[in-house]
Specification:
9 helices; five-stranded mixed sheet; 55% helix; 16% strand; Heat Shock Protein 90
Amino acid sequence: MNAAGRLRTGFAAARRLSRTTAVRLSLLYLVVFSAFAIFLVVAVTHDAARIMTRQLHEAIDTDVDALQDQYRSGGLVRLVLALEDRSRRPDAGLFSVVDTAGNPIAGNVAELPPGAFASDEDDDEPRPLTYPRFENGREIARVALVRSFALDNGFRVLVGRDVGERERLRVVFRKAFRYIVVLMVVIAGLTWWFLSRRVLKRVDQVAAASRRIVDGDLSGRLSVTGSGDEFDRLALGLNDMLARIEELMKGLKEVSDNVAHDLKTPLTRLRNRVEGALAGEPSVERLRAALEATLEESDGLIRTFDALLTIARLEAGSKVGAALPIDVGAVVGEIVELYEPSAEEAGGTIAAKVGPGDHILEGNRELFAQALANLVDNALKYGRAPDGGPAVTVSVEGSGDDLVLAVADRGPGVPAADRQRVLDRFVRLEASRSAPGSGLGLSLVAVVARLHRLEVTLEDAAPGLRVVLRAGRR
């Protein structure tokens, strides 16, 4: 690649970099912090200089008042002695006494520039004065604030303070400002590095997971560092969403496969029955019997599709009405009373065991009753004891988050390895394939239980199967 190509590539990379959130936030932090630093340095420098200037004014005024008092009390000699004493102090200011011709009489200033005593009047306020000062063998121009006043004999006195400390303070603050700017640039760089290496990395993971979802891969999950920060919470939420989507897609595939497989048999029976009726001798009785069998088979298919639609609607989160208090004990009594004739006809029994107290659950009463009816119907059909008819017991205890509803039978039960699988759609164990049914009863129970925040577990009733719905699922 030639130089022009490398330059274009560099510009393109810089443009891409400038569009990233890390660079924009870093620049924003740099601008904000720099503006704050400039404001802080300027404000502190201005206030410090103002305070020091006021202190200089106060010190000069104090010296002027003291020297004037000395002159009034002891004349020129006492004023000179006091001035010499102040000149020898470590923090001495500028002091000078000149005669009427401008010749220095006393003080610590060897040479005063022209205009130091420009006026014959006393100074009311300190004024700036540039004067020469020797440091390390060379003359340096320095600035001082001075006041002068005249004596009765025409002599003049000058009192001042060097402003070098104030200027040095300003130099210190300017240097500190440069250091702060450099520090802000370093902080902006570290912020960019942190955002690009940590924060944006997590964002890129979310984007990558989204692309995998679009491509049809629902098995990937976002990494969770365990720090508990907002990205971990986002990752956990997205992982739950992905798991749910994967579960729904898997269920959809299974439903499609099961519909194609399990509904093929009844449809084949319908076709064969119609063909048999058309192939034989015309007979009203035979045709009527064929039509009645076909109608019964069609009703079974309609019930299967209705159950599928109900399950799909509930899993999709469709509205099923407002959650209202359900008296579970009353529902149990109604279902047991409804199925008592069926149990007696099958040569068995069905009983309800309702514990003391109110058994209240928030939800949809119709759906809950349908799920309980499915459990009772399964228990009556598949829960026959080897030595007799079915014996079904429906029990309920507790209320709210402590509610426990159980349906137990005395049949052969369900093997432990199949207890979770039978909650899926169209799953029918070999022992029950000869009995009527579609394999959707327990699937509907599982969906309704999830809607009512109930946990479904299948247990060994020793003998038989015990299906338990426990509240508290979240």
